[in-house]
Specification:
By secondary structure, the chain is mainly α. It has one domain: Four Helix Bundle (Hemerythrin (Met), subunit A) (Up-down Bundle). 47% of the residues lie in helices and 3% in strands. It contains five helices and two strands, in the order ααααββα. A hairpin with a 5-residue loop joins strand 1 and strand 2. Helix 1 packs antiparallel against helix 4, helix 2 packs parallel to helix 4 and helix 2 packs antiparallel against helix 5. The N terminus is likely disordered. This is DinB family protein.
């Protein structure tokens, strides 16, 4: 009896998240407990690096590929998403530092999960890529100085960020998904 090739398995999307999470910049998140002012902007890079071992440990779990419910991402899928969050925010930070008030390209996290088949990726490789991407963001953030923290950028929906609020918003996403995976 031969095994079924998992790559031909039909992708079942997770429940889409259509919320505008920018409210976490002013209110504490009731789910994960994150508050935007919990970590000073100058410490977000170090905190980013400090969180990587928790993702590595979660991605090393035997059940990392198993969804807790049919439309809820597995640890693997959350790990792939967080890896891409690090990458997207590194790009957004570079735009903010290199241009005046840039508009960020749209990023559809659900479309990316489907197109890149997060569910079929290798957990060990995702852990390594997540660590590298986290370090790239942290390194870029370490280079921010003085008035650069107040440079702006915006999403297509009109939400405006400073480098400080972008970093806070980013950190909430990373912390929140640790809560989602119980790590």
């Amino acid at each position: 009896m031969s095994a079924v090739d998992p790559s031909i398995r039909q992708y079942v999307p997770a429940e889409p998240d259509g919320k505008d999470w920018t409210w976490v910049l002013v209110d504490r998140c009731p789910d994960c407990g994150f508050g935007a002012d919990d970590v000073p902007a100058g410490q977000i890079a170090a905190t980013t690096r400090d969180l990587v071992p928790r993702y590595r440990a979660a991605l090393n779990r035997r059940d990392a590929v198993v969804r807790p419910a049919p439309t809820v991402w597995s640890v693997l899928e959350y790990g792939a998403h967080v890896r891409d969050v690090h990458r997207v925010f590194t790009e957004r930070l570079a735009l903010m530092l290199g241009q005046d008030d840039p508009q960020f390209p749209n990023w559809d996290q659900d479309a990316t999960a489907r197109a890149d088949r997060y569910d079929l990726q290798d957990p060990g490789r995702v852990a390594d890529e997540l660590a590298d991407a986290a370090d790239a963001f942290a390194t870029a953030l370490d280079r921010v100085q003085g008035a650069q923290w107040q440079r702006t950028g915006r999403r297509s929906n009109g939400s405006v960020f400073t480098v400080t609020t972008l970093a806070e918003y980013y950190l909430h996403d990373v912390v929140h998904h640790l809560h989602d995976i119980g790590a």
